[in-house]
Amino acid sequence: MRAWTLWTLCITPALAGCVFTRDAIKLPSENAVTRDQLVIHSDASLSGEQPLIDELSALRHEVAAKLQLPPSEQPVHLYLFDAADRFDSFVQREHPDFPNRRAFFVAEGGFLKVYACRGARIAEDLRHEVTHGYLHASVPQLPLWLDEGLAEYFEVPPAQRGLNKPHVTLLLQRWQDRQWAPDLARLEQLRSSRDMTQQDYAESWAWVHFSLESNTPRREWLCRYLASLQKEERVPPLSSLLATIEPDAAQALVEHLRGL
Q: How confident is the model at residue 207 (pLDDT cuts 50, 70, 90)?
């Protein structure tokens, strides 16, 4: 899933997407369900969506437990559109600079929002975007690469333990063709989703999976890093910490991918 995440705050009413006027396209609102932190808005009945709602609710606890983060109570509002044309019109009107996406997450004006359209991949889309919401509620200063890497990790069904197989295939093929080598410091320079390629998303996921699923010490240093970010401490980039903790991390990452 290629996410689109808006991290800017609303500065003036003239900014697209910051203020809904009388002429704005009406958001889904006929039905609403609240599950813990997640508030789902939909015009269609949500009675048949119970398994998905349960899954998204469980995801909150999965993210918190895996990353050793206390769950936040800040609401994450999910607006679920039924019609693709209405969703597209909303995006074009309120966020005209966004690329074409089935779903996206927005953090603006102190609110956390997910907009999505029902479709064949809605469960994957929502796991990805709602993960962004849970993460930003707990760690607002999350670096872009880590935000996307974690969302790519949690978008797959829980039984897969974060294994995003298309990413493995892409990275190993490009590594064998000498078109890619792990470079976390380069990823850390990315500031906008507009600048991220498919390979960047895959590598971001790879560093996350390597950290969470290879061994306990790596999982612990990633969790400590997230805890420092949550406290809004001035912490060095993760790449500089790795240079001291595990100088051969790039090669270890490749070996991790080859073993998947």
A: very high
Q: What is the average pLDDT across 133-160? A: 95
Q: Are 134 and 59 in contact (CB under 8 A)?
A: yes
Instruction: Look at residue 13 in the predicted model and tell me its pLDDT.
Output: 30
**pLDDT tier at 8, thresholds 50, 70, 90:** very low
For the chain, list the domains and their CATH numbers: 5-138 (3.40.30.160), 151-258 (no CATH)
Cα–Cα distance measured from residue 33 to residue 21, given in angstroms and rounded to the nearest whole number: 25
Q: What is the pLDDT of residue 101?
A: 85
